[in-house]
Amino acid sequence: xVNGFFLGNELIALAAVDSGVxxxxxxxxxxxxxxxxxxxxxxxxxxxxxxxxxKIALELAAGEAISGSSTLCCMKMVGLNVAADxxxxxxxxxxxxxxxxVSADDPGPYSSQTEQDSRMYAVSAKMPxxxxxxxxxxxxxxxxxxxxxxxxxxxxxxxxxxxxxxxxQNFEAGDVSKEPIHGQFSKxxxxxxxxxxxxxxxxxxxxxxxxxxxxxxxxxxPEKRYDMAVVASGYAYAMAKDVINEMNLPxxxxxxxxxxxxxxxxxxxxxxxxxxxxxxxxxxxxxxHNFTIKTVGRLTGLVPSEGELTVDIIADILxxxxxxxxxxxxxxxxxxxTPVQLKPRLCAGCGHRPAFYAMKLAAxxxxxxxDIGCYTLGVNLDAVDTCICMGxxxxxxxxxxxxxxxxxxxxxxxxxxxxxxxxxGLTNAVVNSAPIVVAILDNETTxxxxxxxxxxxxxxxxxxxACQGAGVRHIAKVDPYNLKKGVEALKQALAYAHTDNSPAVxxxxxxxxxxxxxxxxxxxEITDAxxxxxxxxxxxxxxxxxxxxxxxxxxxxxxxxxxCMVCIQVCPQKAIGVKK
Amino acid sequence: xxxxxxxxxGGQGVITLNAMIGTLAANMGIPAVSAExxxxxxxxxxxxxxxxxxxxxxxAVAEGSADFIISLTKDEALRNLNYIKKDGVIxxxxxxxxxxxxxxxxxxxxSDMAExxxxxRIYGGQVLLGILLGCFDGIDTEKALEILETAPKISxxxxxxxxxxxxxx
Lengths: 580, 169
Ligand code: SF4
Ligand code: SF4
Description:
The complex is a heterodimer.
Chain A: E1 3-7, H1 8-18, E2 23-26, H2 34-42, E3 47-50, H3 54-66, E4 70-76, H4 77-82, H5 84-93, E5 98-104, H6 118-125, E6 129-130, H7 135-152, E7 156-158, H8 162-165, E8 167-172, H9 189-192, H10 196-216, E9 228-232, H11 234-247, E10 252-255, H12 264-273, E11 276-280, E12 295-296, H13 311-322, E13 334-335, H14 352-362, H15 392-403, E14 410-414, H16 415-431, E15 437-442, H17 463-469, E16 474-478, H18 483-500, E17 504-509, E18 524-526, H19 535-539, E19 545-548, E20 553-556, H20 566-570, E21 576-578
Parallel strand pairs in A: 2-3, 2-4, 4-5, 5-7, 6-7, 9-10, 9-11, 11-12, 14-15, 15-17, 16-17
Antiparallel strand pairs in A: 1-8, 18-21, 19-20
Chain B: E1 2-9, H1 14-27, E2 32-35, E3 46-53, E4 66-71, H2 74-79, E5 84-93, E6 100-101, E7 104-108, H3 110-118, H4 124-135, H5 141-148, H6 153-168
Helix pairs in contact in B: 3-4, 4-6
The structure holds iron/sulfur cluster (SF4) (2 copies).
One iron/sulfur cluster (SF4) binds at residues 348-349, 523-524, 542, 544-545, 556, 561-567 of chain A.
């Protein structure tokens, strides 16, 4: 029996446990990261793996499900781009046990490169997709996902948006946990190893299954109270329902649990019953595309096509459609103060900061392709020039160098991202003689998403070995806290890359500062020699250093300083020392 | 229904505070939904979380409908002013004066007080929660404290300190 106030991600994990999932696979990514952790918390004896990337995670989950077992696979929506290849294929073959793929979307976006809608993938791969509206609903729909998967032998996608993953809600669970479902592989070549001829047959079977499923899951049209209805799924449904209840708006509500496949008969009936239908969903018009008449939404320009849907946007849309004016109880506040804008920054004492600083010193005219992680915040130090997708730092470095042969190119990639997709790019750079420097920022964890483990901390392989295996012949290891050594290592690597026409690697290793327990820590101190040149708090931007406006000099926040002592090496006036 | 915004800077314990309020409600048998932001924003950026206590499906607080705002910094309180409703209360952790009118404001250096009283700035949030319990009619303070019994001793002391502060100021 579980009782309490739970994250959406925790309830998805609990539903997987209660459905009899044997193995769970994931690659971390906000907002999906807490699911696997919670799975292990609820069922420590079951198998859970942080895979190297999402394609691998999905193939492992599918492979076991094809063997008749029940599995869970979790990722964020941009991870689904990486896993798209197996996604489309497994939709055709189906599974023998059960499999739910959770792909978490990030409308906003808050922590992502795009606002893409995983349900669009579900539509084009022809995979059923469920769209929960809050944590309790995420539990219900994940359970339902496993029931559908078992019944139809199809993989099922559950698509929560960030507001569902990272909402908490009160929840009481019963004692329903099923024993893990463990199957055996039975050979079936026309299905599991289908050639194009058999693929057509699988496709036809899939289409039939989808029609049956759509009919079974057709949304319910309520007893008619109004001439207008809101058809909605996901968090947009939860917000719309709250707005309609709280503000007494004249709409019937229809919840769509499964945006794809959507029952055609339901659409026809809804259009017959209502004079006006408002479709609310995030972030693409997946449901709305099924409607043809009397319907307003994103396709008609009523709902914005970018950004997160907020309760205020939804309220305005509904009031407008109802021809009513919205009044609020807003306080009328007068104030002369304006808030200072806060931007996210690398932590005080983070090893990435001096590595970026060293790059700028070693190659002032350099081009610095970056990657995805905390270290994308290297933009604040002007040491991240591009950020495209996981692993693109290395490939962009090769490409940038080819287009800009006269400029030094140093790219940065984190340890987890390196193993995710960096190794393949690095191999390509070796094979194609790219004279670039790859700075691997090794903080020994996947920090941004909540400190998931990294491959080289298992003790089974090292980053150097992976680089050697990729064919790299110049590899240096440095402690980023030693700024001088860092600059030297980068200069040597650049020189090597240019003379040998081959990539060189510099590995900056420093444990993530949030993991370091400082005992009797020493801290830095600024003396009167400070000329307020701004370097330490603006260029180096340590968050523990701020400007003392009255004294016109830099000052150290003693509770924030962790004593990395890099600022001492950065200050041109030798104005910073160790506090006695 | 009680609606609130709890905000501050990444790393200050905003999310913990929100979860604490929600857990409290859940343990009192009142349904609640909250929403948080994780990831990039947690690295020192602005963090705003929302909570609705009562029968509802989402944690989305509309502009002008928050009964309370608890902010761990003055800047974040200012940034979220648009959420507060007419008779709402804003509780802010700051030692700076606050030039504002048109809404009830309780501002105090809660983290400094927490460091002095309980040996950690992180308990500042609990002091603010105590103030909310002490000054807000929507919640049964006695019952809340009874239910909080199971929380770590030091947290309870910080909350009680806040309740007393609210009752005496
Ligand atoms: S780098 Fe040195 S001189 Fe410049 S502001 Fe900082 S302490 Fe002062
Ligand atoms: S020693 Fe200097 S650079 Fe390091 S955390 Fe303290 S103030 Fe920041």
